[in-house]
Design goal:
Helix content is 42%, strand content 12%. By secondary structure, it is of the alpha+beta class. The chain has one domain. The chain has a 3-stranded antiparallel beta sheet.
């Protein structure tokens, strides 16, 4: 039964728009082949996209960022984004 749920989550991921958000529990074991600890280690190392803070207790990843990582996981490198000149941080 557990595999059926994983397949269902993976299928749902395929239909989400790139602008959509996805939470950790929806990624681990379904879309991503590693644990939560590995996910956060990769985020810290810049080897996986950083999540965005939705609220004080909720973080999520942009679906498009996760898809970009899935296309070429070994080539991904998080580049710090700096505000354009004249923009406020």
């Amino acid at each position: 039964m557990e595999n059926h749920c994983a397949d269902k989550q993976t299928t749902l991921f395929e239909y989400l728009p790139d602008s959509g958000l996805i939470r950790q529990r929806q990624l681990i074991g379904t879309v991503l082949p590693f644990s939560a600890a590995t996910l956060w280690r990769k985020v810290r190392q810049g080897a996986f996209p950083s999540p965005i803070r939705v609220s004080s207790q909720i973080t999520a990843w942009r679906v498009g960022d996760v898809r970009a990582w899935l296309r070429e996981p070994g080539q991904y490198s998080a580049v710090p984004q700096r505000p354009a000149r004249g923009q406020v941080k």
